[in-house]
Amino acid sequence: MIDPLFNLNYGSKWRVKYVIYLVAQVFFMVLFRILFRMRVYGLKNIPRSGGALMISNHVHNADPVLMMAACPRPTHFMAKEEIWKVPVASWIAIKTGAFPVRRGTADRAALRRADEILRDGRLVVVFPEGTRSVTGALTKAFPGVSLIATHSGAPLIPIAVLGTEDLPGNGAKQKKRDRIWPSTKILFGEPFHLQTHKPDGSRWPLEELSDAMMIEIARIMPVSHRGVFESRAAEPHPAVRRDKITFTGPEPRALLSRFKR
């Protein structure tokens, strides 16, 4: 696998944006290390190329910003459509490649957009719970989220965002801060595939596949944050498979191949 910067499947304009992204990422990583004592773990689990669906818990408005700073590749967030009604927020969302979703509905346009991005070999980030957790613990996911993974065939990468509940600026869901100087962590778990069928040949219900996704997030979180999945986090769900991980997208074409004769 090769770095997106040298992948000819992406145009020169996209690669220029990628360079800008990398420069900005270094700046924000230094800033967040100082302000939020942010630490990042599991970067080896992010492929240098190829598409994957990244699934994360959600506690604070700042979670996407910290995740973009932590991830070594550009990400496309599936974000609530209400963001596009706020001028500054919508501008940032558009510039960072986010796309809207109508929460609580089977938003086919959002599903198609996610599928297109994944098949193009890029990373999509979703918050399966659909909203920020008030307690900081995991809650049930929307069943339709698993459709993105099963339809595209993309592997999933679980993410745990920890400590952001102590950050200010969380609106109506702001909790009493336990620390004046927050300590935040971003953990990237091992990629996995979802099997759509049981060993007997019958299909897994969408709700059960969504639970399988949430269990993988719970497994990389502290027990106190596992919420409704605490009792199921000891072992992976039977629908989870980790052999022969295949990332989506066209075969990468290296920039240096132009000079080969």
Q: What gross morphology would you assign?
A: globular
Main β sheet profile? 7 strands, mixed
Low-confidence segments, given as residue ranges, are 256-261
Strand content: 5-15%
Task: Please state the second-level CATH architecture.
Answer: 3-Layer(aba) Sandwich
State the domain count.
1
Overall mean confidence score, pLDDT: 87
CATH topology term:
Glycerol-3-phosphate (1)-acyltransferase
Derived structural class: alpha/beta
Question: How would you describe the overall organization of this protein?
Answer:
The protein has a 7-stranded mixed β-sheet, sandwiched between helices. By secondary structure, the chain is α/β, with parallel strands linked by helices. Mean pLDDT is 87; it is low at 256-261. The chain has helices at 12-36, 63-70, 87-95, 108-119, 145-152, 206-218, and strands spanning 39-41, 52-56, 75-80, 99-101, 123-126, 156-162, 185-188, 193-194, 240-241. Helices cover 29% and strands 14% of the residues. It starts with 11 loop residues before the first helix and ends in a 20-residue tail after the last strand. The chain has one domain (4-167, 183-249): Glycerol-3-phosphate (1)-acyltransferase.
